[in-house]
Amino acid sequence: MVMMNAGFLLSTNALATVCIHPGIPVLMLIGHSGGVGEENAGHATVGALTEPVLQAMHIVYEKVGRFEDIRPTICDTQMLARSSRRPTAIVLNKEALR
Known about the structure:
Elements: E1 2-4, H1 5-10, H2 12-20, E2 27-31, H3 41-56, E3 60-64, H4 70-84, E4 88-92, H5 94-97
Parallel strand pairs: 1-2, 2-4, 3-4
């Protein structure tokens, strides 16, 4: 599942009821807006909430900052999602998305 962090925040109820509770593994690729250098106040707010919400939902995640690290992180994170039967996430910063 690919989304920006605002989409992740909007999907938390669905993730909890459809994936976490019944134990359905899902790998989320979350584009992170709102980091250092963000000029849009709305993006900054969403950016500040993304990791705390992932943590509150007990979703294991990895942060990726380089494009070349995406593929191996996907493999490792997908393996964890399957073995734990829980959603996992990869948070991609601006550099990884270029």
